[in-house]
Write a structure and sequence with these properties.
The protein has 2 domains: 199 residues, MFS general substrate transporter like domains (Growth Hormone, Chain: A, Up-down Bundle), CATH 1.20.1250; 243 residues, Growth Hormone, Chain: A (Up-down Bundle), CATH 1.20.1250. The chain has a two-stranded antiparallel sheet. It is mostly helical. The chain contains 20 helices and 2 strands. It holds the Pfam family MFS_1. One of its GO terms (molecular function) is transmembrane transporter activity. It comes from Labrus bergylta. It is found in: Membrane.
Length: 485
């Protein structure tokens, strides 16, 4: 009979086992630590350069539409189609692109995108030789634009996927932000470079050459430098299971995910409002006598402050993981900026107010994009990152077309507008702007009130690393031992 206070060897061994399993020990922590590779920054650089280059190809002709129309001997409407072809091509190819990213991998997708981007840029330049005898310039340039448009989905869907499989969990949002914001940076560069080089129609070939050279260099970097789709070892627990769901099965899971569908609808509406703003800014402001130069300045402020806001917010989200709170707050602030723009843009002689509102619109609005892409992965895990993020882009593109058609249909022709700098067609944008602000407010309220989800990817990583069951404070090993005991 054992004396009181003594512990038998059997019980003592159980106690030792319990103490050993209370949280991972040092050796286990070493085994569970994930390695990251410096090569990830090169992969990110290639994607950023490619994204920036493709954006410059998209917007090459818009800032110099008159010069382009004169050189290519077409109308301004035909010049607009050189930009619109990107939207037309992107939507039907988007599902194929998400399948390629999640099935064939990052390397093949980026290399294919870089070659299409290069061939499109070169074909545009080769189709614009000097001289009056060459009469098929526009069809060749349009073909080159189409090839570049084919590359866009391969590039623009990639940031979330790259961040997930190459970067640790405390750098994912930052990597996604850097890669995503390289696209608006390219738009900004196109608005600066195109008017600077092509001051006359004869300089259009020089402009196209200026965009073709970087595309060739980037294609070389991607083809030679990208040696694998994934690092030798995963940087996080979720990276091991990236794209674990088959593509079709992933789509089925997304269609049953209420939180994801709500994000798909509301964030897509936000992207549509941004597309309307960027597309219609000059037409809205010219009615009140604001010049094209001032409209271009407002567009530049919109992008610059957007990139700044996205960078700051990406670093914050990486540290706090407050995806839902950040998205709801920023979406609400963006809605207020949209309402303010719909009011001040209808006033005369309010340059400072308009510039400030456009800056705030970009600061709060652009910052949402990479965070929402990360949130789409968190609420839909283990569906492939390219699938969940890609469908958000598709939703934004489709709603952009619908919003632009709706707003243009709501315009009315003004008989008298003495301050207008619009040319022949002077339209009233009062009703369309109020409708745009109203729609944005409606979708923001729906999202803020009803959206909620748990962070499935972060929960899965915590469970894989620490043995923690999502939503509980105990560990899997402790639970197992208690049952055995």
């Amino acid at each position: 009979m054992e004396e009181e206070g003594e512990v038998s060897p059997a019980v003592q061994s159980v106690y030792s086992a319990v103490n050993a399993l209370k949280g991972p020990n040092q050796d286990l922590k070493k085994l569970l630590s994930f390695k990251v590779y410096k090569r990830r920054w090169f992969v990110l650089l290639v994607l950023c350069l490619l994204n920036c280059s493709n954006a410059t190809l998209w917007l090459t002709f818009a800032p110099v539409a008159a010069q382009s129309a004169q050189y290519l001997n077409v109308s301004l409407g035909d010049i607009n189609w050189l930009s619109l072809v990107f939207m037309v091509v992107a939507v039907p190819l988007s599902l194929g692109t998400t399948w390629m990213l999640d099935t064939l991998g990052l390397r093949i997708t980026l290399i294919l995108g870089s070659w299409l981007n290069m061939f499109g840029a070169l074909l545009r330049f080769c189709g614009t030789p000097p001289g009056e005898g060459f009469t098929i310039r526009y069809p060749i340039v349009m073909f080159g634009q189409t090839l570049a448009a084919l590359a866009q989905p391969l590039i623009i869907f990639t940031p979330t996927k790259l961040a997930a499989i190459w970067f640790p969990d405390n750098q994912r949002a930052t990597a996604n932000t850097i890669a995503s914001m390289s696209n608006p940076l390219g738009i900004l560069l196109a608005n600066i470079i195109s008017p600077m080089i092509a001051q006359t129609s004869a300089q259009i070939p020089s402009l196209l050459l200026a965009y073709a050279v970087p595309a060739c260099i980037i294609c070389f970097l991607a083809t030679v430098g990208l040696r694998s789709s994934t690092p030798p070892t995963p940087p996080s627990a979720s990276a091991e299971a990236s794209s674990s769901e088959p593509f079709v099965q992933g789509l089925k899971l997304l269609m049953k995910n209420k939180a994801y569908l709500l994000l798909l609808l509301c964030f897509g509406a936000g992207m549509a409002v941004f597309s309307c703003f960027a597309t219609l800014l000059e037409q809205i402001m010219c009615v009140q006598g604001y010049t094209n130069d001032f409209a271009g300045l407002c567009g530049a402020l919109f992008i610059v402050f957007g990139i700044l806001g996205a960078g700051i917010l990406g670093l914050y989200v990486d540290k706090t993981k407050n995806f839902i709170e950040v998205t709801k707050i920023n979406l609400s602030l963006t809605t207020l900026a949209c309402i303010a723009f719909s009011v001040v843009s209808l006033m005369r002689d309010q340059k400072i107010a308009i510039a400030a509102v456009c800056s705030l619109f970009g600061l709060f609005g652009y910052a949402i994009y990479p965070v929402a892409m990360e949130l789409s992965v968190e609420c839909s895990y283990p569906v492939g990152e390219a699938t969940s993020a890609g469908l958000l882009f598709i939703s934004g593109q489709v709603q952009s077309v619908l919003f632009i058609i709706l707003l243009q249909a709501l315009t009315t022709r003004l008989v008298d507008s003495p301050l207008s700098t619009c040319g022949r067609d002077v339209l009233s944008w009062r009703v369309p702007l109020m409708v745009m602000a109203g729609l944005f407010t409606f979708f923001t309220c729906i999202f803020v009130i009803f959206f909620n989800t748990r962070y499935k990817r972060l929960d899965a990583e915590e469970e894989a690393t620490n043995g923690t069951r999502p939503g509980s404070g105990s560990t899997t090993t402790e639970h197992s031992l208690s049952i055995n005991t």
